[in-house]
Write a structure and sequence with these properties.
mainly beta, Jelly Rolls, 6-stranded antiparallel β-sheet, 23 strands, mannose-6-phosphate isomerase activity, metal-binding, PMI_typeI_cat
Length: about 325
């Protein structure tokens, strides 16, 4: 199979509907959602089991991200991440990008790390993630980490009493805040938040508290108490937000960890690509223009693209009052 020549990949969004969703994926992020009022998530770039991003334009239209990862690993992922050989059975794209519209508070959850995920009945990666706050209502909260001094027994006692909220660190986030949630961090997104989330491509989630509410069948949703207590990190304590300087030119680090690098561009122009690494771009507010050789791509609010590792160096220009997020593996 010949190596693709396409330098920019756009995908059809994959929508998820739940009772906690709303309509802001359409009204604020211009997603082509339908007429219902419960669109909770737009999975922008994903390669995880049956959940697959499908290329929407160009030479590769109709190809799934899994197809590309397995048939053109070096072209998509880079020789450091995918190896020099095409045909890499089982290889998957390692990151997942989504937008979430939280119309009600989500359950309190915790994700395991890679080692624990490998021991599960259906093995999966662990899940480290980060949230970028796109919009926040005046009373919106994020729950991120445990209060100081909360150990396993204190968390177990609070769960048993139905008072998990009392041991959670919470705060009101502002648009532009970034909250880093390493594996093992107890967390929840509150009502009224519109969020961009970057994470390991994984579905390993343990629910430890659901606000004492009933599911759609009139029964409490299943909890994973033992697993949650086993994987929670009791040493890291409260999590705080970081944010970029909207008056500063160039890339600014929001998260730099062993799973990914998340950066923002708030003003000016910056080059990227041509470095044997893939790059994910998304625009949570405003617009941007990407110039790649003789190609020009306008990226509108809510749109996301992927530059394969084989793409040449490109120039990204962000418009006034706009933000671009850039994600890649944090490879030495």
């Amino acid at each position: 199979m010949p190596t693709p020549t396409q330098n920019v990949l756009r995908f059809h969004p994959l929508f998820k509907q739940t009772i906690w969703g709303g309509r802001r994926l359409g009204t604020s992020l211009n997603k082509p959602i339908g007429t219902a009022s419960d669109y909770a998530e737009s999975w922008e770039i994903v390669d995880h089991g049956v959940d697959q991003s499908v290329v929407s334009h160009g030479q590769l239209a109709g190809a799934s991200l899994s197809d590309l990862a397995q048939s053109h690993a070096a072209w998509l992922l880079g020789t450091r991440n995918g190896g020099p050989n095409d045909r890499s059975p089982g290889l998957a794209f390692p990151l997942l990008l989504k937008y979430l519209d939280c119309n009600r508070v989500l359950s309190v959850q915790v994700h395991p790390d890679d080692d624990y995920g490998a021991t599960m009945p259906v093995p999966d990666k662990g899940k480290t993630e980060a949230w970028y706050i796109v919009a926040s209502l005046p009373d919106s909260l994020v729950y991120a980490g445990l209060k100081p001094g909360v150990d396993r027994q204190a968390l177990a006692d609070a769960i048993q009493a139905g008072e998990t909220e009392s041991v959670l660190h919470s705060f009101h986030p502002q648009p532009g805040d970034c909250i880093f949630i390493p594996a093992g961090t107890v967390h929840a997104l509150g009502a009224g938040l519109l969020v961009a989330e970057i994470q390991q491509s994984s579905d390993t989630t343990f629910r430890l508290f659901d606000w004492n509410r009933m599911g759609t069948d009139g029964k409490p949703r299943p909890l994973h108490i033992r697993e949650s207590l086993d994987v929670s990190d009791y040493s890291s304590g409260p999590v705080s937000a970081t944010r970029s300087d909207r008056a500063r030119d160039g890339w600014q680090d929001l998260v730099r960890c062993d799973k990914f690098l998340l950066q923002s561009l708030e003003t000016g122009s910056q080059s990227l690509g041509g470095d044997d690494q893939f790059h994910i771009l998304t625009v949570p507010r405003g617009n941007a223009t990407l110039t790649c050789g003789d190609e020009t791509h306008v990226i509108l609010t809510g749109e996301s693209i992927l530059l394969p590792a084989a793409s040449p160096e490109c120039e990204l220009c962000v418009e006034r009052d706009s933000t671009v997020l850039q994600m890649q593996l944090n490879t030495p």
